[in-house]
From TrEMBL:
InterPro entries: DUF2795
Full protein name: DUF2795 domain-containing protein
Stored Pfam families: DUF2795
Superkingdom of origin: Bacteria
Length: 63
């Protein structure tokens, strides 16, 4: 299965407050109705604090 693209992922992170941890990103995306493939990919991100959407997208693309 192909990874979801960062644009799709960012749609579900709209409105999240940065800086934000990986777990909070997952929780927010889940509350926004993100599909399982997006949630699974977010869960694979390194467990650290992200300072904005560009940092999340960069890691999301590497995973």
């Amino acid at each position: 299965m192909a990874a979801p693209n960062p644009i799709q992922m960012q749609k579900f992170l709209s409105g999240v407050d940065y800086p934000c941890t990986r777990d909070k990103l997952v929780d927010h995306a889940q509350s926004q109705g993100a599909p399982d493939d997006v949630l699974d990919h977010l869960r694979k991100l390194p467990d650290r604090e992200y300072d904005g959407p560009n940092a999340v997208s960069a890691e999301f693309s590497r995973s």
